[in-house]
Amino acid sequence: MQEQLLTQPVEQTQASFDLVVEKLDSWLATTIAMLPNLVVAALIVVVFTLASKLVQRLTRKVLLRVTNPSIARLMGTIACMLVIAAGLFFALGVLELDKTVTSLLAGAGLIGLALALAFQDLTGNLIAGFYMSFKKPFVPGDLVETNDTLGTVELTDLRSTVLRTPEGQLVMIPNRQVFDSRLVNFTCGGSRRVDVPVGVSYGDDLEQVAEIAVEAVSAVEERDPERDVELYYAGFGSSSIDLTVSFWISSRTANYRGARSEAIVRLKKAFDEHGVTIPFPIRTLDFGIKGGEHVSEALSPLATAAGSPDESTRQQLNTLQ
Fold first, then answer.
1. What residue ranges of the chain have pLDDT lower than 50?
2. Structural domain of residue 146, as residue ranges?
3. What number of other Cβ atoms are within 10 A of residue 136's Cβ?
4. Which residues, other chains included, contact 233 with Cβ-Cβ below 8 Å and sequence gap of 6+?
5. Long-range interactions of 20-25: CB distance < 8 A, separation 24+
């Protein structure tokens, strides 16, 4: 009885040891049998890794011609990762791990869907950045207006567009907002029209005013000499006849505000030299309950009730009539 109790643990230990040895022998045999496949899989990984570096450089070099550097770097990195992933899948296929490949693909799809839902705004900005990088509605240096912001484009990265306003501030606008909103590019056309509104007196000769104004504005230094100065009368104002003088400048090299300021100065100087009047606003005051009365008539009952006015008051009333 005691001998049986002593030999039973020994037999169990021997059985466990034999099982481990058998499993190791099985693994060794499998490894030896799969050794050619392992070598081929390793070679595939190495080849695809080297190819990914080449694809990355080529992708960046090609995209730098049509898009900005940040987009080119990102696309190069994505191309590199795709090539490496393809190499890993081929290697797993050589090792006859098809189920593992299927599981990895399913997992990658689920992870991609989860990331897309979690970062919707970031994804939208990235897609808008890609689109604008290839379509190029503007380039750095263009003067644009979008999302109620006027400024010069500094750069467009993967997430936002950076504008420098005329006051010198940098404004970062998400690419998705730029893509979805109204965009005005003042530079891409090559030229820009400058409009200067002004008014002249009803007593001035309008034909003479037109000649004086066109001659004055034609002398603006940054004006495009190949395009004529235009002048149009806009209508009859409350105290003046309104007109607009228009001329063209280069949208890339000329200073818009400087050219407009120079045109205003030249117009004022030319009008003064030829006696053309730029009238002040005129206001007519009506007195009385029904209107149509002079101020002296409206004040007469008050003056009578208070007594006869003195001489200075009479003179002031007469002046107002």
1. 2, 5-6, 317, 320
2. 138-185
3. 14
4. 206, 241, 242, 243
5. none
